[in-house]
Design goal:
heterotrimer; A: 374 residues; alpha+beta; 8-stranded mixed beta sheet; 13 helices; 16 strands; B: 153 residues; Jelly Rolls; 4-stranded antiparallel beta sheet; 8 strands; 30% strand; globular
Chain lengths: 374, 153, 304
């Protein structure tokens, strides 16, 4: 069954969700809230953003009604899956005073077994990029691992690109190649509405036992490929990654950084929406009596003033140095640290920047300035 | 005199200096010894000499009303002491006190200035070397000015 | 460059590196008006929780083995946690020693600890001084201010393996004589016949000081070592290291003969929080000790 492609009809989609929930998974997927498509727990097909699409550009995000009733007819919103695997707020341990000393009780809460519904290829890459950060080094984050190891992934191949997408440049999409249990390509063809489902794991095959399927025909596969190809042609942005690490490393003092700094508000939106940004801070708190303490881990951003504080002051005090840190980490140092780029080309940072700073434009400006002086 | 010339030509400060010039300045030099605690010069003294320290340790000090005497810098073996002979008003800015028994070669500044007037090229060579000394002292002083070990909150 | 997505068998992890291990304060020594040395011993009882810290493994001597240059995260109940270099003898890890300068909330609280107080320790973390690589070479140690603390374990190691190294020189600069660390030990080391120790202060009063006055970089031209066969270990404020390196280069040292210790904000010390990044390096795991040629491109670049 692994590697097989089957057809699931639109009317049977609910059974997929049911099958997962019956197996004890908490199904999480896209839903409309506060005029955006975000990720939250879903139980029914009706929770999905049926018939909605998103229009995105630098500093712009709007939901629009589609002409059809596609379930996955949008791209990516302000949430990413890191919200579940790498929670924004997490209690690491509690401590209680005990005479002169204290006793620590680590957080051993069993996290839910998640099934992510609707993971784009770029997001899939982002999950694997975070795997390298949290599980591939000398130390392993047990909280990330606990959430990651039971994860069931239903990927979705994009059949249309977003206004700020550039997964083709980053070689992270639009087609999901590996790392999922099931991958869906949604096809609306005249009266027909169905999904071409690729089965990649035994877990995936297992779940599909409870869903009516029939083998995919060559024509179905062809249509699916064509639609995905269409998405690849529609990319809203482009990023030339040729020797990008060396390009950025040798331009750490480029005047472009001052230019961006004049626009950047250091609001940290980009780091919040980016699916690979992983920085956190730790807060050690006590109750009023001073007998109980807790260590809480929270998302943090390299754009904050305190991020690089050492006695006397912050190493990166200027806005320019903080923007430079974020961009060069994402596109250059990440390669040295983890062997891959930190960017998956999802375009969220461009869409959610209040002043529309575009990472692809910044790199282009630096690259072109070198070419013109050459 | 022969020994003095040899000592001078071996010293890094006079490296690559034409032996003829070494001979000239040796004529303005003599060996001196300072006992521990002895003052070599005091603030305000006319700058009549400079020294090449051969062994021992000398402390440059300044008196600050309310705080007492403070040590600015110590100089030891191999160091050149005294550059104020080269620039007006030709006055010493600090006290110099030997911390231990110190041997040095003392140069008569008037004599040297006279020789430099006769042989401008010698003057150029000496001033190049003294510019370096002044530069090094300035560097070292600036580093202490920024108080690198202080806690700056 | 695309991510290689491979299906993985994720093993279950039993330890959490963010959980501290309790240690007891055995002794507090005051070094200067704002710097204290804490001597700690691990508590005998095991952690009550089922998810142990990965730092509870004890060596034969009963302590946690560490290498010179490494640091730990010290946690004070309800106050917070800070990275502090280990300043003790690696041959006697049963006593975990740290020298702390009171500059912030947590360090000020650490400096008020008394014998018998309990604190939490995570670690040791980080890279170490190249004691093995330097065997056969002369060693030049250049320390400024509290930078002598992370170098003291290296000095201890050298002295207990004296025959493995050539000439050994320790150069130490402090603000004033009252700010000098480890005065007694400096005098002891200086008193040995097989090590050159030179100390200087930025300023002093003649009634309290008969030694050198001047910035520590001025001691480098006079240090006795073979520039072709020397390893230099440098630690202190970044600006002091910058100028010390210039002087070392003037003496003919190559960039791969010089090692420095860097400092950055740390929240986790295990490469997860991202705060300690220095260019592509994580100071908590790629450092704090760096061979200078590996960081020379970014060293001295502003706000990196």
């Amino acid at each position: 069954m692994i590697g097989e492609r089957v057809i699931v009809e639109r009317q049977d989609f609910q059974k997929l969700l049911d099958a997962l929930r019956q197996k004890g998974y908490v199904t999480v997927g896209p839903t409309v809230r506060d005029r955006a498509i975000i990720y939250d727990e879903i139980a029914s097909v009706e929770d999905l953003p049926i018939g909605w699409t998103d229009e995105q550009d630098g500093g712009k995000y709007r939901l629009k009604r589609r002409a059809d009733q596609a379930l996955f007819g949008y791209v990516v919103g302000p949430h990413s899956w890191k919200k579940f695997l790498h929670p924004p707020v997490l209690s690491l341990w509690k401590a209680r005073k005990n005479g002169k000393g204290f006793e620590i009780t680590p957080n051993r809460d069993e996290p839910p077994r998640y099934a992510f519904i609707g993971v784009r290829s770029c997001e899939l890459h982002a999950i694997f990029i975070q795997d390298r950060v949290f599980t591939n080094g000398k130390f392993v984050d047990p909280h990330y691992q606990a959430r990651r190891r039971n994860l069931f992934i239903v990927a979705v191949n994009c059949v249309q690109a977003g206004g700020t997408c550039f997964c083709v440049s980053m070689k992270t999409g639009p087609k999901a190649i590996a790392g999922f249990d099931l991958a869906l390509t949604e096809i609306l063809d005249g009266q027909r509405h169905y999904f071409v489902v690729e089965i990649s794991t035994t877990l995936g095959a297992d779940i599909l036992q409870r869903v009516p399927t029939k083998p995919a025909q060559p024509r179905d596969l062809q249509i699916a490929e064509e639609r995905i190809q269409q998405a690849a042609q529609q990319m809203g942005r482009q990023l030339d990654t040729t020797n990008i690490k060396e390009l950025l490393y040798r331009n750490l003092e480029h005047p472009r950084w001052d230019e961006v700094a004049a626009r950047c508000l250091n609001c940290a939106n980009c780091t919040m929406v980016c699916p690979t940004c992983f920085c956190t801070t730790v807060e050690d708190v006590t109750d009023l009596t001073g007998s109980e303490a807790e260590r809480v881990r929270k998302w943090d951003s390299c754009f904050t003033m305190d991020f690089s504080y050492i006695h006397g002051g912050s190493v990166r005090a200027s806005a320019k140095s903080r923007y430079r840190q974020w961009l060069t980490h994402k596109l250059a140092s990440w390669l040295d640290q983890f062997g891959t780029s930190g960017c998956v080309g999802c375009g969220r940072c461009i869409t959610w920047c209040p002043v529309g700073i575009d990472i692809t434009e910044e790199v282009r400006a630096i690259r072109e300035s070198e070419q013109s002086t050459a | 005199m022969d020994t003095l010339e040899r000592l001078l030509s071996e010293h890094p400060f006079f490296k690559d200096l034409d032996p003829r010039y070494i001979q000239l300045i040796a004529g303005c030099a003599r060996e001196v010894t300072f006992k521990a605690g002895e003052f070599i010069f005091r603030e305000g003294d006319p700058s009549s000499h400079f020294w090449l320290i051969r062994s021992g340790k000398i402390s440059l000090e300044v008196f600050v009303p309310g705080r007492g005497t403070l040590m600015i810098e110590t100089l030891g073996e191999g160091d050149v002491m005294g550059w104020s002979w080269a620039v007006p008003p030709y006055r010493k800015q600090y006290d110099a006190r030997a911390l231990e028994l110190t041997r040095a070669i003392e140069f008569d500044a008037m004599c040297i200035r006279g020789k430099c007037d006769e042989e401008p090229k010698l003057g150029y060579e000496l001033f190049k070397r003294f510019a370096q000394i002044i530069g090094q002292r300035l560097q070292a002083t600036r580093l202490r000015l920024i108080d690198i070990y202080g806690s700056h909150d | 460059m695309a991510v290689t997505i491979k299906p993985q068998t994720i093993e279950i992890v039993q330890t959490d590196p963010m959980v501290p291990v309790p240690y007891r304060v055995l002794r507090v020594r005051r070094e200067t008006k704002d710097t204290f040395t804490l001597e700690l011993e691990p508590l005998p009882q095991p952690l009550t929780s089922p998810v142990p810290s990965p730092f509870t493994e004890r060596g034969a001597e009963g302590g946690v083995r560490f290498a010179p240059g490494q640091f730990t995260m010290l946690y004070l109940f309800g106050v917070g946690e800070v990275p502090i270099s280990i300043s003790g003898d690696p041959a006697h890890p049963e006593l975990l020693v740290h020298t702390v300068r009171a500059v912030g909330t947590v360090t000020k609280a650490l400096c008020r600890l008394k014998r018998g107080d309990i604190l939490g320790v995570r670690g040791p973390f980080g890279s170490s001084w190249p004691m093995a690589e330097a065997v056969g070479n002369d060693i030049l140690i250049v320390a400024g201010g509290v930078g002598l603390a992370p170098l003291r374990p290296a000095i201890y190691h050298i002295l207990s393996h004296r025959g493995e190294y050539g000439r050994v020189v320790v150069l130490y600069g402090a603000r004033t004589p009252g700010d000098m660390l480890y005065k007694k030990e400096l005098v002891q080391w200086r008193g040995r016949f097989d090590i050159q120790v030179e100390v200087t202060v930025d300023a002093a009063r003649p009634d309290e000081w008969r030694g050198n006055v001047g910035v520590v970089t001025t001691l480098i031209p006079r240090a006795q070592f073979d520039p072709y066969h020397v390893t230099a270990l440098v630690c202190g404020p970044e600006v002091m290291m910058r100028f010390a390196i210039l002087e070392l280069q003037k003496r003919g040292l190559r960039d791969d003969q010089i090692y420095i210790s860097m400092e950055r904000n740390m929240k986790c010390a295990v490469g997860f929080c991202g705060h300690c990044q220095y260019g592509p390096h994580f100071v908590c795991k790629d450092g704090p000790v760096f061979r200078f040629d590996k960081v020379k491109e970014i060293f001295g670049k502003r706000e990196i």
